Amino acid sequence: MLRSVGQTRVTGRGNGEDPRAAELRAAVARLRRELAGHPADFSDRGIAEDELAVLAAMVAAGDPEIPRMRRSLLLIAGAIGSVSALSPALMQVRTAVDLFGGTPPRRP
Length: 108
Fold this sequence. Notes:
Blueprint: H1 19-37, H2 45-61, H3 66-80, H4 87-98
């Protein structure tokens, strides 16, 4: 299907929800489930859970703040980055956050 410039993809839900928000909501839910089911206890688990809750709340409110989403993503990655079993779900969250504004430019 071809789309014109500036046209957004329509989801199958029919409620006009932003597809980026739907993607982020699904990614956050997946990582929260996988984190809850992960048997290892690590010291920064609480930070990851809190920041996932922040992302979920921003999406639910309908007006996510991109710098705050990136900060949450960094905190989550720092908290669970060494747990390889959670890497695919973490990457899904990162990809979903990037949908809101792309990757910021690197500083020289």
